[in-house]
Amino acid sequence: MAVMEKDSHPPGAVIAVLGTLLRINLAVMADYDRVLGGIADEIMHARLTAFREKHQAHVSALSDAIRSMGDSTPEQSKTPRKGLLAWVASFFSPRSTRGALVALKRAEENSYRHYNREVSAAFPRDIKEMLRAQFTDEKIHLDYIAENLKVLKSSE
Hints:
Order of helices and strands: HHHHH
Number of strands: 0
Strand content: under 5%
């Protein structure tokens, strides 16, 4: 359970931030689901699948933290890309490795920006440690995707 420290944000503000990060991770997972079929390279596909699983772990940890603070997890229906938007996104999903990586790079950059903004905020120690670990994961994902885009560009 998150122990509120003297200079921490109030519990409602912490829950709001965690809920936002949870929804972002769900959206990133949806992006991975949408584009993984465009990745032909088995090693890259496996690595990106592992990244998607990391986002699932983030969702679980964020959900647990929200519940430990006495709130319920945000409903998945409030996450982006539902209904008509999901259909449109799947219609335009990338069919190439490069297109898939570009889409994932955008998703990971958005996630990275949110974590970067929140990782230094005044949160309880256990929440701050969780966010730092997840922020590190985001950096690893982004670096891997960016490096592979460079390699693909240089081979064109």
